[in-house]
Design goal:
By secondary structure, the protein is of the alpha/beta class. It has 2 domains: 170 residues, D-Maltodextrin-Binding Protein, domain 2 (3-Layer(aba) Sandwich); 120 residues, D-Maltodextrin-Binding Protein, domain 2 (3-Layer(aba) Sandwich), CATH 3.40.190.10. 40% of the residues lie in helices and 18% in strands. The chain is built from 11 helices and 9 strands. Strands 1, 2, 3, 4, 7, 8 and 9 form a 7-stranded mixed sheet that branches. Helix 2 links the parallel strand 1 and strand 2.
Amino acid sequence: MRHLIHAYTSRSFKSVYRILAAAVALAMPGASPLLAAEYPDHPVEITVTFAPGGTPDILARALSEGLSATLKQPVIVVNKLGAGGAIGAASVARGKPDGYSLLFAPALVQSVVPIVQPNAGYDAQSLVPICQTFETQMALIVKPDSPYRTVGDLIKAAKENPGKLSYGHAGTGSIPHLSMIELASLTKTDFNVIPYKGDAEVPPSVLGGHTDFGPMTLSSVPKGAVRIIGIFADARNPAIPEVPTVKEQGFDVAPTSFGGLYGPAGLPDDIKSTLEKACKTAAERQIYVDTAKRSFLGAELYTGSAAFAARLKKDVNDKKALLKTLGFPK
């Protein structure tokens, strides 16, 4: 009986202690009411704006394993497709900033989508960056027997036949499309441009002879089916060291698609800090590193919220200027 009374008293004391601790925390200047809940105390959901099985989805699921292990709560990945990422991004941007609804997406959800789709339901300030966890390079592909073996060959042919050389891309405003806009602007060349509905349509177009070449995400290039003549990057990709960068070939263009984890604007600093630390641990786990390597990602995987935010700010400004040349906003 004495043991039961002691156990009951102990539990009661702990309950009172927790209540008092929560009250003190709430009374502190600048304290978040969410501190009382000891975030996280239930499952966290991560929205991915791409289809299951794609590189962003695979990366998000690898990252979620590490996040779950650190946060001690299930981290569930859901896919919300449509409108070039706008539907999934808007669903998180309009959500409650409590750390339980997050977004895993490339930077274009902030720098491109709100400009190309002014009715997307959110703007660049609607999302707060938590951590960068990937950097995807763009590649220029031709069919195996193409006479174009270097980027210089493409530019030379384009100058000799203005508007004749053709390429397809993943869609207006996509990073592969904008990569070629930069290259064309730098070299003052004119191409016949054909927009598709995603990277998957680019290789068949090139292999079928419908287009002369194609810019596309390196991680989406079908292995062994096409020839890569250059990648848009500052340094060669260690997975394909034999392929030179576009920069190496004399053209100072190196756009990349980077991204990571976001939350809704208004996310409390303490929760963002918890997620940022968990994100670093998750991105450094072997399962995530190996997944990134298999996807031919660039070497720069993780950066914290401050560096991610600074890079995003620059990307928003750069993309705004570039999209203006395409007539956006309309």
